[in-house]
Amino acid sequence: MPAMASEDRETKPRRVRGVERSVEVQIGSLGGFDLRPTRFFVWAGEERKGRERVVPLDSPPRNLRIPRRERRVEVGLVRARTLGNPLMTIALAGVHAAKKVSAERRRRELERFSNEEQPRP
User: Fold this and answer.
1) What is the pLDDT, as a whole number, of residue 1?
2) 20 to 30 A Cα–Cα from 11, which one of 4, 23, 67, 72?
3) Domain segments of the chain as ranges
4) pTM of this structure
């Protein structure tokens, strides 16, 4: 029985701590994206390094304190990698994106209101 337990440990993905949770998808040579709760990376081509664009969604990232498993899946030309629960990652990114859109809308309304309030010479 102990031999079986050691085999299970070897096949389980290692747990990662100290980085942001993420969902990364690469679609062959077309490009890919990496969604994180506070940032969205997108790139064209097979190689990500040096070609990615970053869209900030909120304040600086918060790293995982609780270790999470990295998981990888390949289906045809599509490769996916997740760190942490992908549904939670997408939900957190959605919340941060909605906050950013709301703050930008408020800023524009205040800007428009302050421009209307100023007396004209």
Assistant:
1) 44
2) 23
3) 14-117
4) 0.73
